[in-house]
Specification:
Layout lengths: L1 H14 L2 E2 H10 L2 H4 L4 H13 L3 E6 L7 E6 L1 H16 L4 H9 L6 H26 L8 H29 L18 H4 L2
Antiparallel strand pairs: 1-3, 2-3
Helix pairs in contact: 1-2, 1-4, 1-5, 1-6, 5-6, 5-7, 7-8
Length: about 200
């Protein structure tokens, strides 16, 4: 649920406000139903739950010859939640869906914050690889050989992810992507609804 929550909140926020259908369409255009395993019903459930939890505000708008539509906008608490979920997804290992969602919402962090959490992931992966290698090297272990194959698979994935994370940290350090503290980011662009007043 955390990945769905993050993506739904993030799309609403980066859109400046959105209806459920808009959130669903945006996530479908990203292929999120595949890499985040998001189902359309879970999007609407996440919107309603986030509104009930005070992470989104709901604004009724007249529908075109039908019932009112609900426009969702992220609250300050919702923005804080997005940032915490991105941080958690970047540093948490063994949860590829949450990592994918965090990468999709990476611009919600400041550059230094993003680098720090990616670097924390690097450190965790390095420590896990060392620990895993030491744990499986015991010749007296009763672990079947075919189960050891799974450990090799995990280690291969972890090494690949480690190289990717190091590369991402380097690219961020070199200025890749518009981050939250950069000109033109979500934090530096005026909120169109706030400008009306």
């Amino acid at each position: 649920m955390s990945a769905t929550k993050l993506l739904v909140l993030g799309v609403v926020h980066l859109s400046g406000g959105a209806h459920g259908y808009q959130v669903r369409s945006e996530l479908q255009s990203w292929g999120a139903e595949i890499w985040a395993k998001i189902k359309p019903g879970s999007i609407y459930h996440a919107l309603k739950k986030a509104a009930a939890d005070g992470l989104l505000n709901e604004h009724a708008e007249p529908g075109n010859s039908g019932p009112d539509r609900v426009l969702y906008r992220v609250t300050d608490r919702g923005r804080d939640e997005i940032v915490e979920l991105v941080r958690d997804g970047l540093r948490r290992t063994h949860d590829p869906t949450m990592l994918d969602a965090a990468v999709a919402m990476l611009p919600m962090l400041t550059r230094a914050d993003a680098i720090a959490h990616v670097d924390e992931r690097v450190a965790r992966l390095e420590a896990e690889l060392v620990g895993q290698a030491q744990g499986w090297e015991n010749p007296n272990s009763d672990i079947p050989e075919h189960v050891r194959e799974q450990a090799d698979l995990w280690a291969g994935r972890a090494r690949t992810e480690l190289e990717w994370a190091k590369s991402l940290s380097k690219r961020l350090s070199e200025g890749a992507y518009t981050m939250a503290d950069d000109p033109g980011s979500w934090r530096t662009v005026p909120d169109p609804l706030e400008m009306r007043f």
